[in-house]
């Protein structure tokens, strides 16, 4: 009798487990099905928008798009169990975007003097070394002339000068630089000063301060270029007539993104924008009248900032980035959205990899925000930073930068971001090889 009872218990348990399994399969197949139809609808839109570029979509596209199905976060799929390559709605935009750059041949305008790339950075406090490492990565790869606009606290100026004057023999002819104090635009400086924290908000004023500069690439100090700066710069030529700035999304996944969960102000798109890498046509910024939710008339950039801050100052968390999000929320036609591999942050790998374009083509620009270059939390990010920091101009890029970096990254595979460490060097390998090819041809 006891034996039958035990058998019965075992059977019941088995039946229960089977039922659970069938139910979970059913739930996830339902999600997959909805994901597909959603995807198709959005994709259609994307194609129209991207026009000619999207017509070239190849066979890889189908694969791409299947990985972009939108799974929902639920009891069955908590965010830490999402499949590794799931990415949010931004993928769909990216799949049409890719074709623009793929066809881009590096411009080697035969002999004629090229316009320099204007690169701006704002450095305060302890950021001297970090900023110099960023500039070093910009000089080391690529070939177009650079002009650095460095806004820094006065006590950092001598440090910048000392480093930038002794930098490389041949590379030195690639860049010029201008040092500026942290400053407000001359007209109504007093009012700016009352409202804005000078260091944090400096970059909002660049279009007004650098009146004679047409276009500018602004980057945070914790950026590292793994692909020549001029490749990003070349996107300016792809702006349509209403676009005046290019930025990457703050996140790929609305369900775990910061803005979609916590923001108490309007923001761009579904996940907001990250302003750590911002390409601007400042001529257009100075000319445009921006729609806003404060006045019925559209306002010029210089007249927009003060009322915007006054209205939202109690609700913003990330300072100037939030203000930019509010501005582009009301003027979405002015933004050129670039894919996540141009602004790759720990967010893209700490819960599993969610930046699909980086998986395919590698990381182009690394953004070590939240101080990850300087602590133990993301050793793979720190490894890239230290590799550039150690590198001295004149040394062989493969022997002294790439190989030691690959070695260091292999030691970080116990972390989520370390597991995708090969993405950090995927594009860099190519950049280094191109750069060396130039050197050996005696450029
Ligand atoms: C730096 O400035 C000098 C003098 O204005 C100019 O001749 C040179 O071409 C500039 N170099 C770069 C890389 O822009
Ligand atoms: C600021 O946040 C509060 C609370 O979420 C909200 O009620 C208020 O409308 C927000 N202010 C603005 C200017 O959006
Ligand atoms: C920026 O926009 C202005 C005005 O539309 C245009 O003349 C200029 O060529 C643009 N700059 C670049 C680098 O595309
Ligand atoms: C430029 O592109 C943006 C983003 O795709 C779009 O919203 C805007 O309407 C376009 N502007 C023009 C004039 O086509």
UniProtKB/TrEMBL annotation:
One protein family per Pfam: Glyco_transf_8
Compositional bias (Basic and acidic residues): 34-46
Location within or outside the cell: Membrane
Principal localisation: membrane
GO molecular function, one term: UDP-D-xylose:beta-D-glucoside alpha-1,3-D-xylosyltransferase activity
Membrane topology: Single-pass type II membrane protein
Record InterPro entries: Glyco_trans_8 (IPR002495), Glycosyltransferase_8 (IPR051993), Nucleotide-diphossugar_trans (IPR029044)
Name of the protein in question: Glucoside xylosyltransferase 1
Native source species: Paramormyrops kingsleyae
């Amino acid at each position: 009798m006891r034996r039958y009872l035990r058998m019965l218990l075992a059977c019941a348990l088995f039946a229960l487990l089977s039922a659970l399994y069938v139910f979970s399969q059913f739930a996830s197949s339902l999600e997959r099905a909805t994901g597909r139809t959603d995807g198709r609808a959005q994709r259609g839109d994307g194609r129209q928008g991207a026009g000619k570029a999207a017509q070239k979509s190849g066979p890889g596209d189908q694969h791409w798009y299947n990985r972009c199905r939108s799974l929902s976060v639920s009891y069955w799929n908590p965010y830490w169990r999402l499949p590794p390559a799931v990415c949010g709605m931004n993928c769909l935009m990216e799949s049409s975007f890719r074709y623009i750059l793929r066809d881009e041949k590096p411009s080697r305008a035969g002999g004629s003097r090229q316009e320099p790339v204007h690169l701006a950075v704002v450095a305060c406090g302890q950021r001297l070394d970090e900023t110099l490492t960023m500039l070093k990565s910009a000089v080391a790869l690529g070939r177009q002339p650079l002009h650095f606009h460095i806004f820094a606290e006065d006590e950092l100026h001598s440090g910048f000068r000392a480093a930038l004057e002794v930098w490389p023999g041949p590379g030195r002819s690639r860049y010029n630089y201008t040092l500026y104090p942290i400053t407000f635009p001359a007209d109504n400086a007093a009012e700016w000063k009352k409202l804005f924290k000078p260091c944090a908000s400096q970059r909002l004023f660049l279009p007004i301060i650098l009146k004679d500069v047409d276009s500018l690439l602004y980057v945070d100090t914790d950026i590292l270029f793994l692909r020549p700066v001029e490749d990003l710069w070349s996107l300016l030529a792809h702006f349509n007539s209403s676009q005046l700035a290019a930025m990457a999304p703050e996140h790929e996944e609305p369900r775990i993104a910061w803005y979609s969960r916590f923001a108490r102000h309007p923001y761009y798109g579904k996940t907001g924008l990250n302003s750590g890498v911002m390409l601007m046509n400042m001529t257009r910024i100075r000319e445009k009248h921006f729609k806003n939710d404060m006045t019925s008339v559209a306002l010029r950039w210089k007249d927009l900032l003060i009322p915007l801050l006054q209205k939202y100052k109690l609700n913003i968390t990330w300072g100037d980035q939030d203000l930019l999000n509010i501005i582009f929320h009301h003027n979405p036609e002015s933004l050129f959205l670039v894919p996540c591999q141009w602004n790759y942050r720990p967010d893209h790998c700490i819960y599993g990899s969610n930046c699909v374009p980086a998986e395919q083509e590698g990381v182009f620009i690394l953004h070590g925000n939240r101080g990850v270059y300087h602590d133990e939390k993301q050793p793979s990010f720190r490894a890239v930073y230290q590799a550039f920091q150690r590198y001295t101009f004149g040394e062989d890029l493969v022997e002294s930068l790439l190989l030691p970096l690959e070695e260091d990254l292999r030691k970080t595979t116990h972390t989520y971001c370390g597991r995708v460490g090969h993405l950090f060097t995927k594009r860099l390998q190519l950049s280094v090889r191109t750069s060396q090819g130039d050197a050996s041809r005696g450029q």
